[in-house]
What does this fold into?
Amino acid sequence: MSTSKLVDDVRKIAKHYPDSRSATLPALRLAQERDGWLSPETLREVADALELTPAYCKSVATFYDMYHLAPIGKHLVEVCTNLSCALAGAQKVVDAFESELGVKPGETTPDNEITFHTVECLG
It folds into this structure.
């Protein structure tokens, strides 16, 4: 049985870490670069390559805003709504994007060009 290039690449990455769980973030990044998002099948592929469960990989992916569990548009607009940004007027920015794009946070424009997200601190 042959393995996918992703599985092979993830296994190569994992060799640089003492524990396969430590390779989860770079493996998810690699998978998302390949597909643009992390489908259940892709999460299973990464999990198999790292000898982890798909649930573990999904739990890591859902913790971080940089991973997408659904397809996204060609362009991604992210607005931080964490406390410091909220105090600085982030909601006005969110409202302006909603009005201009015609979508709410978490949605993609009908032409699949722009996905709009609110996120935690972007630093």
